[in-house]
Amino acid sequence: MFALEVKKEEVLGKEELKALQEEVRKLAKEKNAVILAHYYQRPEVQDVADFIGDSLELSRKASQTDADIIVFCGVRFMCETAKIVNPTKKVLHPNPESGCPMADMITAKDVLRLKEEHPDGEVVAYVNTNAEVKAVSDVCVTSANAIRIVQKLQSKKIIFIPDQALGSWVKRHVPDKEFVIWQGFCPPHFEFTAREVQKLKEMYPDAKVAVHPECHPKVIDMADFVGSTSQIINYATTCDTNRVIVITEVGLKYTLMRKNPNKEYIFPEAMNYCGSVYCCTMKAITLPKVYETLKYELNQVILPEEIIEKAKRPILRMLELS
Fold first, then answer.
1. Is 189 known as a binding-site position?
2. Where does this protein have coiled-coil stretches (predicted)?
3. pLDDT tens track for 255-302
4. If you average pLDDT over every residue of the chain, what do you get?
């Protein structure tokens, strides 16, 4: 019997943490559960995951798994996506309060209004949207595949929702199409400024700069490389410099260090989750919450069948086009 008081998640010692991780793995095996975690999750959560990835990678994994239970360590829209692409599975969310501020910046009603105003446009929804929004969209994209997918679309007008930064980045690469871009944004990424990037470049003149496309266009302009989380991992761990300034959520540092510990990865501000590029909702999922959720099969993601059917189309279209 596992005796740890799981509500004391912030005071776990090293041995307690290790014991809890072993218990989570044991439970997952007993219940035929797969644990999926985003790169921005806490290191101790990443360590118990069967698969770690960005939004596109996790969407693919969720659609392919033969596990009975999916424990999704990510924000709410990610859990919804897992349920949409694999509706017969039990999808559990360790912290149902972990939503995405960007996803909440647009509603299905907003999308329907945009479609009325631009009947010749095709709605391209960033995967960082809630299920109801996906259900009224034409195709989903991630930061890894957005440019490629928009280039393949027949429509000459693109209604891009909800991220203005990613929409502007895609527009740069697809100049032959007209864009209507919703003015949503990722608060942590959008807070980082070009002035701060310049300061880091001056402090580390030999470093390359890798930036996530959810950042402000002025920050993107200063980058040596712009890409999704997984693309940043590949670039930062293989580029020809020993130092890389990484402008994205600081949780990625853990993966980078595991992939190539011989490089120095410089994140904005402090490295202990106190920097400006910090996703509070991602970090709200803790190892004790993962344990409780799996043990008692809590926080099951439930979506109406109609929403699942309608939202599945743009997601499957994304997977096919990417």
1. no
2. 10-37
3. 999 999 999 999 986 433 444 467 888 999 999 999 999 999 999 999
4. 92
The answer to the question of whether 229 is labelled as a binding residue is yes
- Does 65 belong to an annotated binding site? no
Q: What is the DSSP letter of 295?
A: H
| Residues of the chain predicted below pLDDT 50 | 1-9, 270-276
Domains annotated for the chain, with CATH where assigned, are 9-98+282-303 (3.40.50.10800), 103-187+306-321 (3.40.50.10800), 188-278 (3.40.50.10800)
Q: Is 186 marked as binding a ligand?
A: yes
Would the annotation count 273 as a binding residue? Answer: no
Nearest to 285 by CA among 1, 5, 35: 35
Q: Distance between CA atoms of 318 and 288, rounded to whole angstroms?
A: 34
Residue whose structure tokens are 């949207």? 129
Give the DSSP H or E segment for 305. Answer: helix 305-321
pLDDT digits (tens, 9 = 90+) for 95-110: 999 999 999 999 999 9
Task: Kindly state the DSSP code that residue 288 receives in the 8-state scheme.
Answer: H
Residue 274 near residue 239 (C-beta atoms within 8 A): no
Residue 127 known to bind ligand: yes
| Three-point CA angle 135, 40, 199, nearest 5° | 115
283 closest CA partner among 64, 84, 37, 105: 37
Q: DSSP label at 11?
A: G
Question: Rounded CA gap, 198 and 189, in Å?
Answer: 16
